[in-house]
Design brief:
It contains 5 helices and 10 strands, in the order H-H-E-E-E-E-E-H-H-H-E-E-E-E-E. It has about 210 residues and is an alpha+beta fold. The protein has one domain: Sandwich (Jelly Rolls). The strands form 2 sheets. Strands 1-3-9-6-7 form a 5-stranded mixed sheet. The longest helix is centred in the N-terminal third of the chain and has 24 residues. It is globular and about 55 Å long. The N and C termini lie far apart (about 45 Å). The chain binds calcium ion. Calcium ion binds next to loops.
Length: about 210
């Protein structure tokens, strides 16, 4: 009887360990930088390894700034409330010379050359006008460079309006049913050129009273 009980405990433990492995394996892998992309690690595509979020069963996924659309694999439902949270600090988060060491800095993004430490005097007249001119071509023109957004693509292929992730932990009502994707606000031609970084996020379903 004791041997049977011990076996049962081991079976449960092995199941939990394997379940954890499977959860990790299902996470959306994405490249940290151009070098990893050239090494073969591509940005996640939509519709891969889809996972649903349940109450008390949060799911984790990565956001990589080099991806135009970083597909989370997370399926959300219109009208339900979700809590999205950055776990820890981002890894090597940056847009060219601009770097963010903390999640708060990453969320803030940057607006002009004065936000970039060690900017040289000659860069203001040379690079400054380009930074100002190019901002109208950002994915979300009215928001600063590299601020983080998420959106939902429904079954018809229609994307919801992007919602800005403004705090490390944020609750939102899903604007549509479909897969969640995220992106750093950038000029479309300047993702693979100079974006680096990966951050881990977690999403959970809010339990409405
Ligand atoms: Ca960029």
């Amino acid at each position: 009887m004791k041997t049977g009980a011990a076996s049962a405990i081991w079976m449960v433990a092995l199941f939990l360990i394997c379940f954890e492995c499977a959860a990790d394996a299902a996470m959306n892998e994405c490249p940290l930088n151009k070098s990893e992309m050239e090494g073969g690690l591509q940005c996640p595509k939509p519709g891969q390894e889809l996972r649903h979020v349940a109450v008390d069963a949060p799911q984790r996924f990565y956001l990589c700034s080099i991806c135009h659309e970083c597909w989370s694999g997370i399926v959300v439902e219109a009208g339900k409330d979700y809590r999205i949270q950055i776990i820890g600090e981002p890894q090597s988060w940056g847009d060219g010379a601009w770097k963010a060491a903390t999640a708060e800095e990453a969320l803030k993004g940057w607006s002009s050359l004065s936000d970039i430490p060690d900017t040289k005097w000659w860069q203001y007249p040379v690079v400054g006008p380009f930074v100002w001119w190019a901002k109208r071509s950002r994915r979300v023109p009215e928001s600063d460079w590299f601020q983080i957004f998420f959106a939902v693509r429904d079954a018809t292929g229609t994307d919801s309006e992007p919602i800005r992730l403004q705090t490390v932990e944020q609750v939102f009502s899903s604007p549509a049913s479909g897969e969640l994707y995220l992106f750093a606000n950038d000029h479309p031609a300047y993702y693979e050129k100079n974006n680096t970084g990966r951050m881990l996020l977690e999403i959970s379903l809010e339990n409405r009273p």
